[in-house]
Each structure stands twice: as C-alpha cells, then as structure tokens.
Amino acid sequence: MKEQVKTTSVQLIKYGLVGISNSLLTFIVIYICFDLLSINIYVSDVIGYIVGLINSFVWNKQWVFKSHNHKIKREILLFVLGFLLCFGIQIFSLWAFMSIEWIKDISLLGIDAPKCGEYISIIGGMATYTICNYIYNRFVTFKPFNEQPQ
Fold this sequence. Notes:
The chain has one domain (2-147). Helix 2 (41-64) packs across helix 3 (72-98). The protein has five helices and no strands. The model has no long low-confidence stretch (mean pLDDT 85). By secondary structure, it is mainly alpha-helical. The longest helix is centred in the first third of the chain and has 35 residues, at 2-36.
C-alpha cells in the first residue's frame, strides 16, 4: 500500500512537471497563433493542443508512466481518444468561461479587458483539461502492464 502511494505521488509530481511544461508550450503556440498571427481563438486553441498532444504523449509514456507496453498503436489510439474526450471537455470549459460576463471585464498585468478575460478563460480550460487528462491516462492509456486486460 505504501509503495503504491509513493508511486502515485511520484507520478503526480512528474505529471505536474510535464503538465506545466506542456501547458506553457501549448499556451505559447496559442499565443503566437491568436495574438501574433490573428488566428481565431478556437482554431488557435486546436493548433496549440495538437502540438501539446504530441509532446505530452512522448513525455508521459517514457517518463511519467514508464510504459513498457509493446502495443504502441493501442496506446496511441487510447491516448488520442482520451485527448479528444478531454479536449471536448476543455472546449466546453473554455466556452463556459468565455460566457461569464465579469471575466470579460478583468484587466491584469497591463492586458486590457476583454483580451485578459480571454486568456483567463484559456487558462481555466487548460486546468480542466489537465485534471481530466491525468485521470484518463492514469487509469486507461498507461495502466500498468500487469493490469492490462487480456
């Protein structure tokens, strides 16, 4: 029991580090697309998450969950399915945050409203995605090999 708690704790810390770096990468791509290239916020969001998806799979498989499953196609399929599910939840979350009137009026760090509200909404969506994605990958995609269904 103690070993499982320790393993899960280490996984959560590693997942958090990958998640932070991945979120920064995703956010930077979204920023470049949305702010510098003037691409629609939702299209920018999709592009950012695709870049993040590739980065996340590599780091989570190799470092966080240390998956030695040789069924890589299965893992990729499950990972992409989990991404789509969690991304759908994230898009809904982004829309929900964007629908809150008072968020549109926030101005922080020299960023004028409503653009600041849009960035707050993006970060809220990213947090929602991260929580959902960890749960999915921990218990579905990278489930320890000895727990895999036959």
